[in-house]
Amino acid sequence: MAVADQDTAVRTGLVTRVFIYGILLVFAAFYLLPLFVMLTNSLKPLPEITGGNMMALPDTWTFEPWRQAWSSAQIGVEPTGLKPYFMNSILMVVPAVAISTMIGALNGYVLTKWSFRGDKIIFGLLLFSCFIPFQIVLIPMASVLGKLGMAGSIPGLVLVHVVYGIGFSTLYYRNYYAVFPTELVRAAMIDGAGFFRIFWRILLPVSGPITVVCVIWQFTNIWNDFLFGASFGGQTQPMTVALNNLVQSSTGVKEYNVHFAGAILAALPTLLVYIVAGRYFVRGLMAGSVKG
Amino acid sequence: MAHLAKADFRTRLQEWLPKLVLSPSIAAMLVFVYGFILYTLYLSFTDSRMLPSYDWVGVENYVKLWGLRAWWTAVINLGIFAGLYITICTAIGLTLAILLDQKIRGEGTLRPIYLYPMALSFIVTGTAWKWIMDPGIGIEHTMHLWGWESFQFNWIKDREMAIYTVVIAAVWQTSGFVMSMFLAGLRGIDNEILKAAQIDGASNWSLYRRIVIPLLRPAFLSAFVILAHLAVKSYDLIIALTGGGPGRATELPATFMYSYTFTRNSMGIGAASAVIMLMTIAAIMTPYLYAELKEKK
After folding, report:
1. Which residues span the membrane (chain B) (predicted)?
2. What 3-state class would DSSP assign to A78?
3. Is A46 contained in some domain?
4. Is the peptide bond before B117 cis (omega within 30 degrees of 0)?
5. Residues A105-154: pLDDT tens digits?
6. Is A74 a domain residue?
7. Which CATH superfamily is domain B37-45+57-296 in?
8. A276 in B contact zone (CB under 8 Å)
9. A282 and A233 share one domain
10. DSSP letter at B46?
11. Would the CB atoms of A256 and B131 count as touching at under 8 Å?
12. Which among A262, A275, A289 is the nearest to B181, CB-wise?
């Protein structure tokens, strides 16, 4: 590689470069360490962890901890494993992501292409709602869910996640549609196309990338949520709450290998999304923080 | 005539339709966000204990709150945690971004490695680090096995040091994200500026110190705002990593609020602590969001 195409315009000597690679690799090891520890130790029999070295590869490889974590480990009082909670999470995440994304797309469309007096204020209020500490809504939410008869149920959790998810999904679509040429929308209006027709025929077909970003963001956030699940999950707790119950349970021997397998199971869906569509994941993160 | 009326109805419907589509979201936001905020604010001025009560007691809860040792512990812990978390994440993020920006071979592999923790739940992060830092089976134990008998790392069991283990786990989770914010900032800098400075004889060090880092101001600001608001909201990580312990040594306002409201039957005080959390975040976010929205016009 010629020095001339260094895009930073900074020239570095050999010693410096070795040094740079060294630091970068040390940090890579730091970030990979917990994943390595979780994986290797989830494949060991328990005595190998308590009596052996956490950083060592298994002597005896076993999938037993995974099986236990999935289908027989004690979660709370029931020896059900994490499986039913995994299902709870899926049943909660799919509708919550779908609904909040659809609403976000429509909101973004209205806020950019059908602007009206006060739309800036509405958007500002929505945007601020993305960042509130949810402790501020826990008490009234608990009583409202109770009154609606949705406390401790999947529909209740879906409602909560949709309500607090539309801020971000609206933000994504608004920023995306803001740069879409308004002339095209005007032209369609003059041709007599209505509100939904324009959305369906003109904006939706170009919304692929932002939809991927939005779905990934909502999926990751809702799957990883703990506070709402722990507060309102009741008998239908999501995966994160179950994992915490598994790890914190004070009865019996601490089965570290099962805990690690459970942790990976809880992380697997979002990790897979990250591996498959990391580019979009990063874009979502950036759009949620820096300017869209 | 009828034809005209119909056309009129259609245009009026078209005029109202956008607002109609937006209105459920506005209603939900007004009720579930701002209505709930006002409700919690109101509760913080009442003598609510196990259940909401509507008997006004003025600022009594706030007076009690600031008289509680546990609350002070939580606030001081938040100060330590947020300060270190923001500083270390920014330092690591900036360093990694600058180093990665030196035409590094394998950048495409390293970047996702730095960033993947962001895809995990804090509960997973907490679980992993809880056992890694556990003196019985974790790093300390490993070092002893490797022959470093005197090695000690029992912070997670130590009241004085436990809060720093929270910093370690939280930095692990988010510093890669800060790196990508800075990297995006670096890639947005015009190369011509740098080349011109180099022709003027600036060294690499002064190039970064005098030109590049000042140009990254917006990225610093975004990183600060995001990290500060994450720090105030930190709850899951504490629950999974230390459970607030040993004793109450790692309680943060978020865990304080939860336990006072739901397990200690002091809903009024819990509500007051939530209001203070919200005000802290509002003080950080509002100017930032306001500036961002104005700029975008």
Report:
1. 20-42, 70-100, 112-132, 161-186, 207-232, 267-291
2. strand
3. yes
4. no
5. 999 999 999 988 888 899 999 989 999 999 999 999 999 999 999 988 99
6. no
7. MetI-like (1.10.3720.10)
8. no
9. yes
10. B
11. yes
12. A289
